[in-house]
Amino acid sequence: MKKLKSYIKGRFIDGTGKDSLCNPATEETIAEVGGGSLDVSSLLSAAHAGGAALRTLSFAARGEILRALSKRIFAARDELIGLAIANGGNTRGDAKFDIDGASGTLAAYAELGKSMGDRTFVVDGDSVQLTRSVRFFGRHILVPREGVAVHINAFNFPAWNLAEKAACALLAGVPVISKPATATALVAGRIAELFAEESSLPQGAFSFLAGSVADLLSHLGGQDVVAFTGSAATGETVRKTAALLTHSVHVNVEADSLNAAVLGPDLDRSSEAYLLFIADLAREMTQKTGQKCTATRRVLIPDSLAEAVREDVSEKLAAIKVGNPALEEVTMGPLATRQQLDDVRAGIQRLAEETRSIFGGRGEVTPIGAEKGRGFFVSPVLLEATDSARARVVHELEVFGPVATLLPYSGDAKVAADLVRRGQGSLVSSVYSDDREFLKQMVFALAPYHGRLFLGSSKLGGHSVGPGTVLPQLVHGGPGRAGGGEELGGARGLHPYLQRTAISGDRPILDALFD
Ligand code: NAP
């Protein structure tokens, strides 16, 4: 039986807690974790040494480390895909999305490091004259924090989540302590082994925790950073950790989201933008079995197109083949865990209070290539609100599976925007229209409630990756219930790991120090 290990101070050791990892298509146990204890002071002293080594390197040199890490993931791509299929219930396509996302994000930050050059700090903005004197000037600089970055990740993207967070922290010059969600940790565990083999990565700059974080968070201080991705409930627990509050530890939370897609009333069934909407919706519902924080959950359709949408989305969903993702013909695998299956079934039941079923009933399915009664399978489920204006649960409950709800509306932009805003802050929503006035109204009504907006128009068909793909160039995160966090966005992704300091003094001295 494979034993998942922690990586601390250059050694692989038993992780904390006691848990087993299974194949969600067969329920067979495939790995175990735990049996050890966490020596927090040894972990932190190793990480601090790694941080000191990173800070001596320029951004360009740190970027070269990221490039090497990206190449290691790429070289092990097939093996990692196999682990994601076995432990995550991923189809091959789902697995590639996660693993290529990981190597691609590391490569993108490697390029950013190259462009930032030989410096070890960032000059933020221009010099400003502070008084009438032509000598007294001020500047802002960004320098690496001297603590550690604790990264706690969700189960759905074990590779990408690890890599996107690590890319930003390491490029900023801050050592990483990465903890994957236990249930799907085989992929992250293998990546930790690959990183451990990379000699350009200073010892201690990357540590990996299998199992729980024990009381690590209680030992953090004002130079440290916590970046958490997962459910709002766990995010709240992490945020409330006494030591994090006492020492003003920077905490970034990426949590649940009820992302919406809005179809504009100007389109008809043959418009390219309408076809893009249908294709994006079917993919966003079913990719990764709907276990994507950016997946579309609420679908606003004008009354004039409601019947067309019901038919066209149902046709796409009927073509999805649910089953054991080890089989090539399967296009949607199981949910990742028994808990996920129970939660999704309970969520569908709650949504049923205010919806009717359009496709997939309550999620019952006969999976391909699975033993009867085994595996955490569910069918794609499309629901429709019986009264969009009164629906409540659909705006409050994230059902983390292949489930979405249609919300018919009049076609009025304000009505649509008011419905979307009831999600209380989302990671990403999308608007499909060729009417620039409609798009403008939606953008300015929705922007305060979102980290990202995707605009789908007819000319974009075939050119975009859709709303659900998180790209390193654009920020990821959202206000309110989405956690209030912000990651990525090119150089912006480094900011949580850097301290911005204002420096005022004699202008020639400032110029000599920072130019
Ligand atoms: P979760 O149950 O909240 O777990 C998230 C992580 O927190 C796991 O690594 C978990 O470890 C750890 N954890 C649990 N209790 C903890 C504690 N008391 N202290 C410190 N860490 C603790 O979430 P999940 O089920 O893995 O992920 C699904 C959720 O994540 C969904 O709601 C989804 O929307 C959200 N998500 C958000 C984003 C985003 O970017 N906004 C991305 C992906 C997913 P163990 O596994 O060992 O318990």
What does this structure look like?
The protein is an alpha/beta fold and 515 residues long. The chain has helices spanning 40-55, 59-75, 77-88, 92-116, 158-172, 186-196, 232-239, 242-246, 272-286, 306-318, 338-351, 393-396, 413-421, 436-446, 507-514, and strands spanning 2-8, 11-14, 18-22, 29-34, 122-129, 136-144, 149-152, 176-179, 206-208, 225-229, 250-254, 260-263, 298-302, 355-359, 381-385, 403-409, 426-432, 450-456, 475-476, 487-488, 498-506. The mean pLDDT is 97. Helix 2 (59-75) packs antiparallel against helix 5 (158-172), helix 3 packs across helix 4 and helix 4 runs parallel beside helix 5. Helix 5 (158-172) links the parallel strand 7 (149-152) and strand 8 (176-179). The chain has 15 helices and 21 strands. The longest helix is centred in the first third of the chain and has 25 residues, at 92-116. It has 2 domains: 2-255 and 486-514, 3-Layer(aba) Sandwich (Aldehyde Dehydrogenase, Chain A, domain 1); 260-471, Aldehyde Dehydrogenase, Chain A, domain 2 (3-Layer(aba) Sandwich), CATH 3.40.309.10. The site of NADP nicotinamide-adenine-dinucleotide phosphate has 27 residues, from helix 7.
